[in-house]
Amino acid sequence: MNTPIILTNLETVPGRSIIEHYGLVSGSTVRAKHVGRDIAASLKNFVGGELKGYTELLTESRNEAISRMETQAIALGANAVVNIRFSTSSVAQGAAELYAYGTAVRVE
Predict the structure, then answer these.
(1) Is residue 84 helix, strand or coil?
(2) Is the sign of the CA dihedral 84, 86, 91, 95 positive or negative?
(3) Are the beta carbons of 54 and 96 closer than 8 angstroms?
(4) For range 67-91, the mean pLDDT
(5) Closest by CA position to 29, among listed 104, 102, 95, 103
(6) What's this model's pTM, rounded to 2 decimal places?
(7) Which domains does the chain have, with CATH numbers?
(8) I want to staple 29 with a disulfide (CB 3.0 to 4.6 A). Which of 9, 64, 92, 96 is the partner?
(9) Which residues on neighbouring strands pair with residue 99, listed in sequence order?
């Protein structure tokens, strides 16, 4: 069974020492909205509340970007990714990239 990789936005893993450094790892995904979510979002503008369609889209995007970053870290031999950050950018009308990046390391 594989040991789960440690993911943290801290610069170190508390209580553990970094013994190897593998450098930058990243994962990204580009997602587009669909008409159904836009219609639901526009209706929510009248009554207020959470835009669940967009919340789900962002959650799926974050999970996919993290998964790709994790895969890259494991391939390098890391057992942790520290200092994880997220970034977003618009790549086309109605489409955005979610980018996750961090530093792959091996901890004791």
Answers:
(1) strand
(2) positive
(3) no
(4) 96
(5) 95
(6) 0.83
(7) 6-107 (3.30.110.70)
(8) 64
(9) 28, 87
